[in-house]
Q: What sequence folds into this?
């Protein structure tokens, strides 16, 4: 089925066509969820129902998902909707290499830079046992930043020969006909096919080496290596002819022998793979120069470790050797290189609105980033010498990753605890509980961790665990709001951190851990990171800024310069999403955070939208609760973490929404059994209060109903109006608060955590989430007890609620809404095996706070009232930068 501009395929809105061929039609499209442009590749109408072509199409998706390399066009996913299957691909802007060649012959230095990137892409594919089989200039794109991307793995096959059955002869592109792989079918493009490919014989990596030689020859001469008036003539030339070697320019003399070996008709005499090509190409240029090359940079671990190719890429140092014998000048600083680190399929990168989102090991061997695979938020480790990634067991609900100085341990927070887990895998251990929200940590060389907790100040704790020691407290009288995002200088005893003020101002401060007064370093900045090059990198808005810094005097030197804009920083949390390894390899998060917004809509049991309550997007809607009579709903609206207010929505459509609270930050409202009152949490700075207000707004003066402390949110009024079920935060347990005397007691005495509870309509049962199995699951217990728990969810679940007749329990499992039928048994209560009602359609949040943060509730008539997210909270990606320290030295040179 052809797509037209404006049509939709899942969340993708088609903008227009980009190109077409026998292997697919490609469209430019907009990802409405992540606010980015992508390329959609769908099968042509003529072969839509061809099972072999469909199998090859899916094979392309699998191949691309296994290849994660800066010189290979990536894949975001496979979208299937309304009978159409589409590969969702990285949209690579810029001309093709064919378009560049059409402008004229490519000079040797430029040709070698491009050839090196093509060879690296092939090396990565060959390292994974994948052969491209259709390498040609039109399948190579040149981005404006100089990065080359190899595209279209539609004809790729694995070295083991696994591929769909042969198909009839037809073209994979509009411009180059194909003309019999193993089994007698020819796949490929005539001018770039190896002799064995043209004969329909089995092929291996050497067929890509042939195509590489054809492409390099074409760049240097501006002509096809093998020509003909038609396909038959071209194939005859490939099988029996020779390239016109005399067309090569004189400057290409050092690489002629390499080209001849690439274009050997006997595969046994050809280079084995792209890694061999890289090595001999470098050696050929060295030998011809009569000198020596500058020392090659160490191979970056995210390159497939097949051959030492650094010398070719280090500014393409080879080029300068051609025809230039004699002494060489000192090498220039290594060139700045940046590329997006695309997460593998199944372990997506997920940028949260607060906190660090990525960390890098000191030796640049791995990155750790926040993710939400299979609907479970936590941390993922990507070893940079591998293309896959793994979820860190025990890091469920983990945020803010940071690594030990040797890179073997990962520290992180779960809101209520500071934890550690081995980077190579193993059990997670609790370092210490947290008293309030976590705002950053630094792991010192003495195996202690310095961390901040906002208004509570600066703490230090042994990495093996123990009682934290408070080192400093903000001066509230001076308007200091809190400490955020610490980092250590190389001595391990001097701390840099962000000091935030109540008026929104930020400063970067240094403090000696052994004592002494804090020193202000930067008046307007946050999230500092020191680089061994003698520079300080920090955030200003969405920018990374650098300035020379003297660690001895703790003073900046000279004026700062901007390094990068468009960084996913969070000034209000002091977060600069920028980390560096010891060798200068850096990772930053590019993108932006959108204020979360959503509409209030009705969904039926199948997840279909049936009506809107509030059609216009609301800022930060959350904590949705329907009144007992089903006629009203209360919801928090406003910025997350600050300034939220309670609003009442009339679900009958007879009244406009009304604002119930007007000051402080108010959230987590719960209705009284008669629907006349609302209990809620109100926060002012670090003070949390449990308050109550009339739901009809007859009074705007709240009544305190609990002690002023770190009180968790009210979950629900019990059947007894004198008891309120609340969330105890540390430890995370369920508690019952007596409203007359304002005291609370823990409900369950278990070693596990419990959260997100709801009473059954008759008040005899309580459904809640608990981590009894190590993962959060939904359980039911008799209320007030005693009695044995009944497990409701077999494969993960949170946020249970009851149908109004008490015969069904609904809960969330990732983005799926589940239903479990309740059974009345002689022994008590039982549940049927849960089933999926619908997937998606409602907002979600990451982390343990999500256990009580509700975006869905069920009305008496069985409809679901949901907050429908109008756009993604964040559009972000990880960007790797090599040699940034050299760039810092160039931009901000020190004394000579």
A:
């Amino acid at each position: 089925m052809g797509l037209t501009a404006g049509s939709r395929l899942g969340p993708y809105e088609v903008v227009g066509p980009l190109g077409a061929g026998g292997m697919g039609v490609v469209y430019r499209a907009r990802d409405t969820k992540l606010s980015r442009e992508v390329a959609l590749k769908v099968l042509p109408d003529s072969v839509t129902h061809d099972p072999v072509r469909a199998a090859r199409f899916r094979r392309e998706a699998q191949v691309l998902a296994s290849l994660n390399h800066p010189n290979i066009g990536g894949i975001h996913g496979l979208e299937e909707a309304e009978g159409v299957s589409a590969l969702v691909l990285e949209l690579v802007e810029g001309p093709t290499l064919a378009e560049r060649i059409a402008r004229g012959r490519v000079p040797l230095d430029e040709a070698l830079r491009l050839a090196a990137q093509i060879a690296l892409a092939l090396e990565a594919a060959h390292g994974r046992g994948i052969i491209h089989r259709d390498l040609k200039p039109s399948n190579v794109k040149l981005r404006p930043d100089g990065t080359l991307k190899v595209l279209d793995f539609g004809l790729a096959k694995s070295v083991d020969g696994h591929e769909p059955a042969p198909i009839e002869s037809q073209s994979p592109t509009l411009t180059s006909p194909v003309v019999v792989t193993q089994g007698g079918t020819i796949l490929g493009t005539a001018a770039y096919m190896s002799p064995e490919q043209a004969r329909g014989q089995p092929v291996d990596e050497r067929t890509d080496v042939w195509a590489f030689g054809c492409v390099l020859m074409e760049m240097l001469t501006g002509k096809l290596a093998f020509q003909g008036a038609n396909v038959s003539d071209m194939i005859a030339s490939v099988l029996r002819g020779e390239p016109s070697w005399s067309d090569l320019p004189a400057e290409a003399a050092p690489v002629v022998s390499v080209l001849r070996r690439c274009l050997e008709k006997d595969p046994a005499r050809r280079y084995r793979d792209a890694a061999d090509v890289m090595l001999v190409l470098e050696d050929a240029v060295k030998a011809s120069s009569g000198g020596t090359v500058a020392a090659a940079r160490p191979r970056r671990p995210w390159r497939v470790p097949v051959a030492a190719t650094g010398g070719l890429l280090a500014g393409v140092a080879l080029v300068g050797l051609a025809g230039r014998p004699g002494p060489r000048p000192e090498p220039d600083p290594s060139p700045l290189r940046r590329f997006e680190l695309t997460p593998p399929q199944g372990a997506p990168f997920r940028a949260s609105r607060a906190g660090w989102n990525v960390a890098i090991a000191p030796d640049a061997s791995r990155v750790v980033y926040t993710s939400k695979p299979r609907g479970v938020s936590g941390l993922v480790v990507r070893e940079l010498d591998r293309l896959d990634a793994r979820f860190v067991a025990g890091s469920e609900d983990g945020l803010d990753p940071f690594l030990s100085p040797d890179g073997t341990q990962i520290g992180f927070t779960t809101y209520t605890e500071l934890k550690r887990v081995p980077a190579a895998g193993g059990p997670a251990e609790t370092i210490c509980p947290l008293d309030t929200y976590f705002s950053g940590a630094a792991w010192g060389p003495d195996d202690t961790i310095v961390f901040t907790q906002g208004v509570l100040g600066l703490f230090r704790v042994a990495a093996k665990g123990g009682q934290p020691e408070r080192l400093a407290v903000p001066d509230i009288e001076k308007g200091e709001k809190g400490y955020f995002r610490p980092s250590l200088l190389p001595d391990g005893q001097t701390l840099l951190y962000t000091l935030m003020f109540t008026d929104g101002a930020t400063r970067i401060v240094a403090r000696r851990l052994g004592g002494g007064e804090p020193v202000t370093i930067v008046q307007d900045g946050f999230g500092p990171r020191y680089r061994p090059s003698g520079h300080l990198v920090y955030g200003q808005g969405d920018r990374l800024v650098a300035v020379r810094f003297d660690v001895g005097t703790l003073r900046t030197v000279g004026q700062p310069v901007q390094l990068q804009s468009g960084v996913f920083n969070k000034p209000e949390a002091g977060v600069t999403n920028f980390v560096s390894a010891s060798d200068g390899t850096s990772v930053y998060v590019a993108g932006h955070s959108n204020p979360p917004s959503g509409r209030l809509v009705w969904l039926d049991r199948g997840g279909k939208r049936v009506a809107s309550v509030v059609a216009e997007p609301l800022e930060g809607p959350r904590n949705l609760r329907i009144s007992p009579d089903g006629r009203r709903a209360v919801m928090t609206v406003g910025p997350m973490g600050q300034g939220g207010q309670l609003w009442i929505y009339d679900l009958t459509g007879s009244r406009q929404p009304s604002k119930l609270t007007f000051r402080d930050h108010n959230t987590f409202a719960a209705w009284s059994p008669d629907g006349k009152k609302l209990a809620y949490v109100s926060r002012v700075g670090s003070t949390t209060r449990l308050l109550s207000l009339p739901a009809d707004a007859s009074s705007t003066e709240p009544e305190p109903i609990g002690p002023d402390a770190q009180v968790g949110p009210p979950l629900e009024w019990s059947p007894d109006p004198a008891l309120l079920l609340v969330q105890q935060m540390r430890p995370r347990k369920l508690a019952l608060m007596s409203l007359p005397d304002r005291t609370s007691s823990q409900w369950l005495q278990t070693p596990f955590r419990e959260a997100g509870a709801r009473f059954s309509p008759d008040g005899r049962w309580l459904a809640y989430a608990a981590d009894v199995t190590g993962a959060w699951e939904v359980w039911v217990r008799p209320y007030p007890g005693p009695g044995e728990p009944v497990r409701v969810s077999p494969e993960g679940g949170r946020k249970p609620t009851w149908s109004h007749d008490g015969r069904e329990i609904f809960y969330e499992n990732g983005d799926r809404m589940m239903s479990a039928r309740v059974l009345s048994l002689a022994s008590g209560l039982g549940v049927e095996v849960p089933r999926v009602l619908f997937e998606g359609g409602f907002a979600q949040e990451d982390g343990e706070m999500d256990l009580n943060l509700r975006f869905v509730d069920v009305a008496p008539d069985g409809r679901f009232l949901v907050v429908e997210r109008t756009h993604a909270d964040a559009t972000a990606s990880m960007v790797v930068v090599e040699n940034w320290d050299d760039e810092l030295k160039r931009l901000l040179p020190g004394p000579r």
Q: What stands out?
A: Residues 108-127 form the longest helix (20 residues). The mean pLDDT is 82. The chain is about 10% helix and 35% strand. Residues 823 and 829 are 6 Å apart (CA to CA).
